[in-house]
Amino acid sequence: MARTKASGAPPSGAPPSEVQPDGIDLPFAAPAVSAAYGRWLVHLGAERRMSPKTVEAYGRDVRQVLAFLAEHLGGRVTLAALGRLTTADIRAFLAARRSVGVAGRSLMRSLAGMRSFARLLARDGLAEITALAAVRAPKVEKTLPKPLAIGDARRVTDVDLRAGEAREPWVLARDAAVLALLYGSGLRISEALGLRRCDVPAPGAGDVIVVTGKGNKRRMVPVLRPVLQAVADYVALCPYALPDTGPLFVGAKGGPLSPRIIQLVMERLRGALGLPDTATPHALRHSFATHLLMRGGDLRAIQELLGHASLSTTQIYTGIDSERLLEVYRAAHPRR
User: Which among 12, 201, 241, 260 is least surrounded, fewest beta carbons within 10 Å?
Assistant: First the structure.
């Protein structure tokens, strides 16, 4: 069979399905499976346009599955063996990986890789791995950013903390205003950067803003006067015109501000304040919810402020245990 580099360019006259990277030889798989594996890697990079690192990760996952199946089935994996796989075989692989501490998210990626490989086998008429469709994806552990301490969250939004940086005052004021909105109103970074100039009132002219959240759902959120003042300070210093219907927060060249800029700001602040790597822009939103709850905030009200469609999402997001949830329920239910 003709071989070519992993760039995916087939030799003259060879169909793309026959192209594979140099050196693909899986000792635990039959030659036809190794060849299909090579074509699949090329497919991921050349046709699916996946990054080299993603292709590498998917390839490693599928190699692990095939290596396990060779031991599990007692011989090199053939196309016929793949077609005979049962749900019990797939679950045996998942159980084996869990037994060595592999997390649900990694197992989900392994299944995704195998399903992608199976689609190529089916497309080329080589094998139908129907068992994969019957296996449920493993549960993925929910991970949340840890909240900052109240004092640290306040300092992060203090423009004076970065006064020594060689940056223009309006940039420092802008960053402080964005972070103040994340912590002071619990906004997602996309919601804060999606605000228009007309969406935020001047200090004393109002105390709420309307933000557009996930699914283009709009909600009303209260804003503290210090937060409004931080925004007003930024607007006063900004060298660019800020039309009412244009973006409120702009970058160094006057275009819409990138979320990456705020992420980098938080990285610098972590160093200045000695904060852990979990102190991210999204952690400020988590801190907003957690600190409200610590001060006796109502769970349903926090749900509305965060823009969560389900109360269970808010419970998980704020790390509330079941006893706290029952306490709120007993205190608020009209038939208590």
Answer: 12
Active site residue 217: no
Cβ-contact 32, 24 below 8 angstroms:
no
Q: Give the active site residue among 214, 217, 225, 300.
A: 214
- End-to-end C-alpha distance for the chain, whole angstroms: 76
pLDDT at position 177 is 94
Using the predicted structure, report yes or no on whether residue 91 has a pLDDT greater than 50. Answer: yes
Pairwise CA distance, residues 211 & 195, whole Å: 7
> How large is the C-alpha radius of gyration of the chain?
27
Q: Would the CA dihedral through 223, 154, 281, 284 be positive or negative?
A: negative
8 Å CB contact between 223 and 184: yes
- Tokens linked to 193: 């950067």
Residues in CB range of 305: below 8 A, 6 or more apart: 185, 186, 219, 221, 222, 288, 289, 292
CA nearest neighbour of 299 among 331, 271, 265: 331
Question: What does DSSP assign to residue 250?
Answer: B
Count of CB atoms within 10 A of residue 118's CB? Answer: 23
- Is-catalytic flag, 308? yes
pLDDT score of 14: 35
Task: For residue 221, give the DSSP letter.
Answer: E
- pLDDT score recorded for residue 287: 82
How far is residue 11 CA from its own chain's centroid? 39
Q: Provide the token pair at 231.
A: 């925004």
Q: Which position among 43, 188, 197, 291 bears the catalytic label?
A: 188
Choice among 3, 162, 282, 324 that is catalytic: 282
User: Which position has the token pair 């801190």?
Assistant: 287
271 versus 18: which is more confidently predicted? 271
CB under 8 Å, gap of 24 or more: what pairs does 134-137 form?
Answer: 134/87, 135/87, 135/90, 135/91, 135/94, 135/111, 137/108, 137/111
Please say if 329 is a catalytic residue: no
User: Is 333 one of the catalytic residues?
Assistant: no
**How far is residue 107's CA from residue 103's CA, in Å, rounded to a whole number?**
6
- DSSP-derived 3-state class of residue 211: strand
